[in-house]
């Protein structure tokens, strides 16, 4: 055990010596490296002061000359780009343009409507009985007073004959009583009673004639038969609806307009109708404007009359659905511009005017009436100026453009 301890101690001593020698060698190498670096600094600092100053002055002169040349070349480059000369980097944007023209500006209220007939009638029977004859069918043109159908009239005829007989008898007695009264042979009271009785019987006779007349169902208006509700041989009762008649020459349109448009509407305003079944525009005019507003819907009713000649020429019918344009106002010879030229941002509207050198100028404008394709310009630009239409969102006042024109 002692022997092992001695050997281990000897090994440790040898290792310590080796490490000590290695540390000295590393320290020597480090010192040599420091010495060599210090020598390099001394060499650079050992240069003459005068030479250093000369070198610095020459360097300053050269640098100043270079900086001046750089500024001169850069400025020339900017001028070329701004003038659009060859060699510059200016971008030219292709656009389409249109001119500000003069024309009529129209304020239009647009809506839809369904044609209605102002004159239409549901014909009812004023008598009861069996239908003996039908004179008109659906689609037939009739005139006021035409007999549409005939009912049996035997009971009415008998009542008429009885009433006539009673009246004639009473009338004869009354005439005799007046003669006797004049001779003093009759009582005045009895003569007056005969007079009143005769008048009553005359009324009964008139009623019997009317009942007989009611067995003939007549047309109350002129027009076209649109519906027949009875057949020959039917037994119908009093007040049964038997026919429907519509006067196609009385067509009109009823339009419900929001109450905030109240002040814009008045009688006589021009109205244009467009129907899918017709290629031409149908003309009309406002016939009347209702004096009250419907509180339930917040609208008021406007009735539009259609020209009679157009009703006949185009064979218009009730129930046609169409688009309606009411011309509220018209201003002649005002400035108009294409809608495609105007840019709107909040409450501001502007466009880009194309100058003679193809540069652009932004013009703030005031807009009046709006039509389908054009806008009325109240201020901001003058007649004949060219404005950007296609490509307006890709340009600014700094842009240079080329207007593309198409040959028709």
User: Which shape, going by the Cα principal axes?
Assistant: elongated
The helix/strand order is HHEEEEEEEHHEEEEEEEEHEEEEEEE
Catalogue the unreliable spans. 39-87
Mean pLDDT: 82
Q: How many domains, as an integer? A: 5
Determine the structural class based on helices, strands and strand pairing: alpha+beta
Strand proportion: 25-35%
Helix content: 25-40%
Q: If helices are DSSP runs of H or I spanning 4 or more residues, what is the number of helices?
A: 5
Summarize the main sheet: 6 strands, antiparallel, barrel
Model description:
This protein has 408 residues and is an alpha+beta fold. The protein folds into five domains: 1-35; 66-91; 123-152 and 220-244, Beta Barrel (OB fold (Dihydrolipoamide Acetyltransferase, E2P)); 153-214, Helix hairpin bin (Helix Hairpins, Orthogonal Bundle), CATH 1.10.287; 248-403, Efflux pump adaptor protein, beta barrel domain (Elongation Factor Tu (Ef-tu), domain 3, Beta Barrel), CATH 2.40.30. Helix content is 34%, strand content 35%. It contains five helices and 22 strands. The chain has helices at residues 2-45, 49-83, 154-182, 188-213, 308-313, and strands spanning 92-95, 97-99, 101-117, 120-124, 129-134, 141-142, 147-151, 216-218, 223-228, 235-236, 241-246, 251-258, 270-275, 282-289, 299-306, 321-338, 343-345, 348-354, 360-370, 374-379, 386-388, 400-403. The strands form five sheets. A six-stranded antiparallel barrel has the order 3-12-15-14-13-16. α3 runs antiparallel to α4 (188-213). The longest helix has 44 residues, at 2-45. It is elongated. Residues 39-87 have low confidence and may be disordered.
